[in-house]
Amino acid sequence: MKNKKNIYTVIDANINRSKEGLRVIEDLSRFVYSNKRSTAKLKAIRHGIDLNLKKISPDYTKLLKNRFSDEDVGRLSRNKTEFTRLSVEHILISNFKRVEESFRVLEEVIKLLNPRVAASFKELRYETYELEKEILA
């Protein structure tokens, strides 16, 4: 594959983005809402990411070698609402969207490497949709 380096860069960025968003949601579920059930589900989704990652790149250094944070053209771009949060619910919504979008990107690009793992990311995305509804409804 000609652009494999770029694919692994995209995978690394979206793995990080999804896990960071899940950790924010998980900590709010755990410490603000004291919701044991949702916290356990969030942890399971995070661990699902790790299981999928091992199937496409068992050597984590492969992803690190394709991480170019210092060269990221989007690193300095800012959204005017990026540093504004109105409530815990607003933080949850922002992070659920971050996770869902990352899973969608992973689902698409990983089709190039392993369609079964791509399908697994699709399932994680749908689990996240349901959990979002459960927590925020």
What does this 3D model show about the protein?
It contains 5 helices and no strands. It has helices at residues 4-32, 36-56, 60-65, 88-110, 115-136. The termini are far apart. The mean pLDDT is 89. With 137 residues, the chain is mainly α. It has one domain (4-67, 84-136): Up-down Bundle (Ferritin), CATH 1.20.1260.
Question: What order do the helices and strands come in, and which of them pair?
Answer:
Blueprint (H helix, E strand, L loop, with lengths): L3 H29 L3 H21 L3 H6 L22 H23 L4 H22 L1
Helix pairs in contact: 1-2, 1-4, 2-5, 4-5
Which labels suit this protein?
single chain; mainly alpha; Ferritin
Summarize the structure.
By secondary structure, this protein is mainly α. It has helices at about 5-30, 35-55, 60-65, 90-110, 115-135.
Helicity range: over 70%
Biggest sheet details: none
Shape: globular
How many domains would you count in the coordinates?
1
Sheet-strand content, in percent, reads under 5%
Write the H/E string, N to C: HHHHH
